[in-house]
Design goal:
The complex is a heterotrimer.
Chain A: E1 3-9, H1 15-21, H2 25-33, E2 34-39, E3 51-57, H3 63-74, E4 76-82, H4 83-88, H5 94-97, H6 103-107, E5 131-133, H7 140-151, H8 163-169, H9 175-179, H10 195-198, H11 215-224, H12 229-236, H13 244-253, H14 257-260
Parallel strand pairs in A: 1-2, 1-3, 3-4, 4-5
Chain B: H1 3-6, E1 21-24, H2 28-37, E2 41-48, E3 51-56, E4 67-72, E5 75-80, H3 97-100, E6 104-113, E7 116-121, E8 129-134, H4 136-150, H5 157-164, E9 166-171, H6 182-185, E10 197-201, E11 205-210, H7 213-220, E12 225-226, H8 229-242, H9 255-261, H10 269-274, H11 280-284, E13 291-296, E14 304-310, E15 320-321, E16 324-325, H12 330-349, H13 359-362, H14 370-388
Helix pairs in contact in B: 9-12, 9-14
Chain C: E1 8-19, E2 22-29, H1 32-37, E3 45-50, E4 54-59, E5 62-64, E6 67-73, H2 77-83, E7 90-97, E8 110-116, H3 121-132, E9 140-146, H4 155-161, E10 167-173, E11 184-185, H5 189-192, E12 202-207, H6 210-223, E13 230-233, H7 255-258, E14 261-263, H8 264-272
Parallel strand pairs in C: 8-9, 8-12, 9-10, 10-11, 12-13
Antiparallel strand pairs in C: 1-2, 1-7, 2-6, 3-4, 3-7, 5-6, 13-14
Classes of the chains: A alpha/beta, B alpha+beta, C alpha/beta.
């Protein structure tokens, strides 16, 4: 019997679902190998279906998300959190660390209709997560490897090494060294194939914290390169601000508001 | 296969720099064309993201002129100067390593077939490749990689295939970067062996000599002239200039102090505090050979492929043994890297694993300096021994 | 030139479940030519490949009835998969790799085998050979430690060895409350005190968890056995077995090509340091 899967969405931009939609031929192979019961971005809507594997995109940011994730967990044998939002709270988790009081008013014309929780949380903060696929968005290659492994009944091999490793294998020149770019590759988990540095842009932590992230040594170096301390601090809390090593470095480097005034 | 390859790359014993020829600056393009005509793809240093790195050259014009590199711990900058010399730079971001020991190398493919598994070797026919601009330190590192990949019980066929197709046009360094220390390792700055052709660049042109039979055959096709006395004097002076280096390893064999230092983790803690364990040092090191084997399959599982990838001793996975990581801390990882490179390499390959290129210093994002660390460890161990006495 | 990286196809001929998580597979190469060329020495290992998952190094337990025998514990993704294979299944196999136990050099001497847990598997073939050539050696002492009595592999075989002349078999269980009949309580190192041998003329062969081997080395030293006469089989992450990938370096030695069996005195300093 074919395994069944569901692809769920909580608070997110749907970018990870788009990665699945963009798998091309592999999407056809996937639909042959497994029964896709719920995938809202592809027009399949059966939220309540029991499945073998549930992939969950998005963070828990609203009361609705809280209720939904409990149901998803109940109805799935194996739960895979996909993407920075589901794994660490995503860019939404900025509200967890920053003085975000005025942001809603600056973005929305009328905030009366907003109903969101005080914090953006990862899926694992509410329910048991069997596997995390990092990335903003996730890597299609890693998704395929994961499905392949799970169909064979084993966990996939996912890297925890630094982006630098992929960057060097790609033959890139290190932009931190050659151009003093504030690259966070040395504290970021590999998986993207060093996408940004391959185009000369510094890494900004899409795949979350790597193994053994020495954020303090990197933060000190970036400040030493002449990058304003505030900018360095803020680089650590962008896509994956929900992660402790990044938050800690932001806390260490940020200049308290009263000192700026 | 170009005919020059058939002539072999055995060093020419009787040829010396005295038998060098002079290639005028304006005829440098002929070297490129002769190599192309002999069937080689030509690789040279080009500017990319603010640094020089080896790439295939579609034309000789892609080789930059007037560029000088400034290197310091964690820093590389190119400066454009008002001259037309092509080789005034000292270091590229990577040496020859990626051209022989590929960062990603498919090894074999397995398929499920009737009655079992079928394994298919991956056989490649890499193109004949000529690299222009290679320095003495990189030639020394190439010899180290040759030793590792080719001279054991199981020569690596993938490295072998690329190595057999490689032709090397080396250049004598006429200056050193602040990060260079090849004089102290004995590997430079002057090219002594391992190259097919060796150049010294003067403003007016190139002293060029052959280091192998096929190098001589190529040299014979170039529009060269006899070398004048002042050419030689000028080249000698410039080579001497490159011997002035700011850094020097304390010794070529650091086994005694480093083996003493490995016992006490306090020696390793200061560097571990700064180390990002990102592995950039090992990735740019021209002698580092570690690689892992990944298994990859398409979604439908119709085949499965073993692929080897560069790995470094800074990754947890590198020392993973069922259930635990042998080298978990940054102290352990940096100690592994340094004691292997500068000490246990002697036990394995009868010399140090460092050829003084300085890349690990330049390309460390936080500027950790292997020479400084080796010196510090030697000092600390010496100090401890004196106190003990 | 044959490619040293590429495995050969082999078939599972038999599968014996030794304990809930330990299985012995009997394997034969699919190609009879490959099978007939294959030779190994006691203590060497093979690389076993499970389709789609990868390779793992597994020591050769023995060769019987035309089959290579590998005893495998389900600990990682590949080894777990290997233990689930049934007769008829196909895997990849290449080898043998590494060096062997110094059975020749030890002729005329006392032989001590000290193993714990699955560490007995790489030593079994050596014990069998020593017993087959009983007259070539003086005293034999076979020591094996396990956590629980039911973890003991090949109990019947050890019982048969008790019948061999001048052969002492000592078993220890470290996590039992009461010693089973003819067993001792405690770690395998406690058995060294009970062993009868001449320290000046004994050769020791050890395999097991590293803490156990460290403790054994200390206990043997106290007994007066020189480290030059002690050998052990070591393990590190091995991905190629060809001396190329670099993962199995324990300081200077590469476990795959200089080992897996080492004279303790040759690698003692590396072995005793944490993190190598």
């Amino acid at each position: 019997m074919r395994a069944s899967i569901a692809i769920h969405k909580l608070t997110s931009c749907s970018g990870c679902q788009s990665v699945i939609l963009n798998l091309g031929d592999d999407l056809l192979v996937l639909s042959r190998l497994v029964e896709i019961r719920h995938f809202i971005e592809a027009g399949l809507n059966d939220f309540d279906a029991d499945v073998d594997i549930a992939f969950v995109e998005g963070s828990i940011t609203t009361p609705e998300d809280e209720a939904r994730i409990l149901k998803v967990r109940e109805r799935a044998r194996f739960l895979v959190a996909i993407g920075a939002c589901a794994c660490s709270g995503g860019v939404q988790a900025l509200r967890n660390v920053k003085e975000s009081g005025g942001w809603a008013g600056a973005v929305y014309a009328n905030t009366a209709y907003l109903d969101s929780l005080a914090e953006s949380r990862s899926v694992a903060q509410l329910v048991k997560v069997d596997l995390e696929l990092w990335g903003c968005p996730i890597s299609g290659r890693q998704l395929i490897a994961t499905v392949r492994a799970l169909l064979q009944g084993v966990p996939p091999v996912l890297p925890t090494e630094k982006v630098c490793q992929e960057c060097k294998r790609a033959g890139n020149v290190c932009v931190l060294v050659s151009r003093a770019e504030p690259c966070l590759g040395p504290v970021t988990r590999a998986g993207c194939g060093a996408l940004c540095p391959s185009f000369g842009a510094p890494c900004y932590t899409c795949f979350g914290a790597s193994e053994q992230p020495n954020c303090e040594a990197l933060g000190e170096r970036l400040v030493g390169l002449g990058i304003p301390q505030r900018q360095v601090a803020e680089r650590f809390v962008s896509i994956s601000s929900g992660l402790k090593p990044y938050q800690d470095e932001w806390q260490r480097l940020r200049i308290p508001a009263k000192q700026v005034d | 296969m170009p005919w020059t390859i058939l002539m072999g790359n055995r060093p020419l014993r009787n040829r010396t720099m005295d038998q060098s020829r002079f290639l005028p600056q304006r005829d440098f393009g002929q070297l490129y064309h002769v190599l192309r005509a002999a069937g080689y793809r030509v690789v040279g240093a080009v500017e990319e993201q603010g640094a020089l790195t080896y790439r295939e050259l579609e034309s000789v014009d892609r080789m930059p002129t007037g560029l000088v590199d400034h290197q310091a711990p964690g820093r590389y900058r190119l400066e454009r100067q008002d001259h037309h010399r092509r080789f005034d730079w000292v270091g590229t971001a990577q040496g020859l390593k990626p051209w022989l020991f590929s960062a990603e190398q498919p090894l074999w493919v397995a398929r499920e077939v009737e009655g079992g598994l079928r394994f298919e070797e991956v056989r490649e026919t890499p193109p004949p490749t000529a690299v222009i601009g290679v320095r003495a330190c990189d030639l020394a590192a190439l010899a180290l990689q040759d030793r590792h990949f080719l001279e054991g019980d199981y020569p690596d066929p993938h490295y072998r295939a690329r190595r057999d197709q490689l032709l090397l046009v080396a250049v004598n360094c006429h200056r050193s970067a602040d990060t260079c220390f090849c004089v102290s390792t004995g590997d430079g700055p002057q090219v002594r062996t391992g190259a097919d052709l060796v150049l010294d660049e003067l403003d007016q042109g190139y002293l060029i000599s052959a280091g192998s039979g096929r190098g001589a055959a190529l040299l014979a096709q170039l529009p060269t002239r006899p070398v004048r006395g002042w050419h030689k004097r000028r080249a000698k002076a410039l080579r001497g200039r490159a011997r002035v280096q700011q850094r020097a390893l304390p010794s070529r064999d650091l086994r005694a102090p480093l083996y003493a230092a490995r016992e006490d983790m306090h020696h390793w803690q200061p560097v571990a505090d700064r180390c990002l364990t990102c592995g950039n040092c090992a990735a740019v090191c021209p002698s580092c050979f570690c690689h892992r084997v990944d298994e990859e399959a398409p979604l439908d599982g119709s085949l499965s492929r073993a692929v080897r990838r560069w790995d470094t001793c800074f990754n947890d996975e590198h020392s993973y043994l069922v259930g635990h990581v042998v080298r978990k801390s940054a102290e352990h990882k940096y100690r592994q890297w340094l004691t292997h490179k500068l000490a246990s390499w002697h036990d394995q390959y009868d010399r140090s694993g460092c050829t003084g290129c300085g890349r690990c210093i330049t390309w460390c994002p936080v500027g950790i300096d292997i020479v400084e660390e080796a010196q510090r460890l030697c000092d600390e161990v010496g100090e401890a021994e004196r106190n003990h006495d | 030139m044959t490619d040293p990286w590429t495995p050969y196809c082999a078939q599972v001929v038999d599968r014996v479940a030794e304990t809930p998580d330990v299985v012995t597979l009997s394997l034969r190469f699919a190609d009879p030519d490959v099978q007939s060329r294959y030779r190994f020495a006691c203590g060497q290992f093979n690389m076993l490949y499970l389709y789609g998952l990868g390779e793992v190094p597994i020591s050769i337990m023995d060769y019987q009835d035309g089959c290579l025998q590998h005893t495998i514990r389900a600990v990682g993704r590949v080894s777990r998969g290997l233990t689930q294979l049934q007769p008829g299944a196909s895997i990849g196999l290449r080898g043998p790799y590494g060096n062997s136990w110094p059975l020749e050099e030890a002729r005329g001497r006392d032989l001590l085998f000290i193993t714990a847990g699955l560490g007995c598997a790489p030593v079994i073939a050596a014990i069998r050979r020593a017993i087959a050539e009983r007259d070539s050696y003086r005293r034999l002492v076979i020591m094996q430690g396990v956590k629980h009595r039911e973890d003991m592999l090949w109990q019947a075989q050890y019982d048969r060895w008790r019948e061999v002349p001048d052969c002492q078999v000592l078993l220890a269980a470290s996590e039992e409350k009461q010693a089973p009949f003819a067993w001792s309580l405690g770690m395998v190192t406690t058995l060294i005190d009970k062993a009868c041998f001449d320290p000046d003329s004994a050769t020791v062969m050890m395999c097991g968890p590293e803490p156990m081997m460290r403790a054994s080395i200390r206990a043997l030293e106290q007994k007066g056995v020189a480290a030059e006469n002690c050998y052990f089989s070591l393990e590190r992450n091995m991905q190629c077995a060809l001396g190329l990938c670099g993962h199995c370096q324990m300081g200077a030695p590469f476990i795959c090509k200089n080992g897996p069996i080492f004279r303790v005195s040759d690698v003692r300093e590396w072995f005793l340091l944490e993190g190598y």
